[in-house]
Design brief:
- The protein has 253 residues and is an alpha/beta fold.
- The protein folds into 2 domains: 93 residues, no CATH class; 121 residues, no CATH class.
- 32% of the residues lie in helices and 39% in strands.
- The strands form 3 sheets. Strands 3, 4, 6, 7, 9, 10, 11, 12, 13 and 14 form a 10-stranded mixed beta sheet that branches. Strands 1-2 form a two-stranded antiparallel sheet. Strands 5-8 form a two-stranded parallel sheet.
- 30% of the residues are buried.
Amino acid sequence: MRFLSGRLIIGLAILAVGVILLLNNLGVGIEIEVRQVLRLWPVIPLVLGLNWLLLSFGSSEGEAGRRVFFSWGQFSTALIAIAIGVIFLGRNLGLFEVDTTLFLNLLWPLVLILIGINLLRGRPHSGGKGGRFAFMGGTNVGGDEPWKLGSGSYFALMGGIEIDLTRAEVPEGETILDLTAVMGGIEVKIPVGLAVTYDGSAVLGGVTFIDQEDGGIIAGRRVEHNQPDSADRKVRIQARAIMGGVEIKEARA
């Protein structure tokens, strides 16, 4: 079950600030100092944290029936975001005094370490001829015409990649798609019934596999989708998002 997405929450917050500042600059009935608005920024991680806390508990429908899941990564991210929101909001509003120097000195180095680990992790593949690189632009893979799928790496840096597997000819054995989005986005559309093993992780980003969404400071999930013993064609998707997003969705008839 999905609640509000992180993008929607941040978008609404930015929109609200923009409207308030515009009305203030135009002198339309309100006078609010910019500093008074900006001091409320901890509301964003607080609301995001509460949303992620709810999203860490959920269920999904599959061929085997309803499955209940729990995401430790999203749960821990939610607690960190809530703590950031409460500490900084309380300090900015003068409710209590907190020395945040040590917290900030530890937070950003740890985030950089997580980003480095996230980029280094993954299962290498050999012999693959597929792959794309998108930098500050967009590229599409697949479409209405049949095409042969091969293992490959897809890297989006401040850009976007769309991969449509609905008409792809999947070879026998296991095909590995290694997806990395850094301040960009990758979207994959898979056909109904395709055997997929999904391993996704995010650092300050979001990854979504069909109806299962993870995001935040650090999050991850592994899902085996449509895995009958008789399947001779399988696709392994390794997805990582760094301040970006990766979404795998199933095509509907």
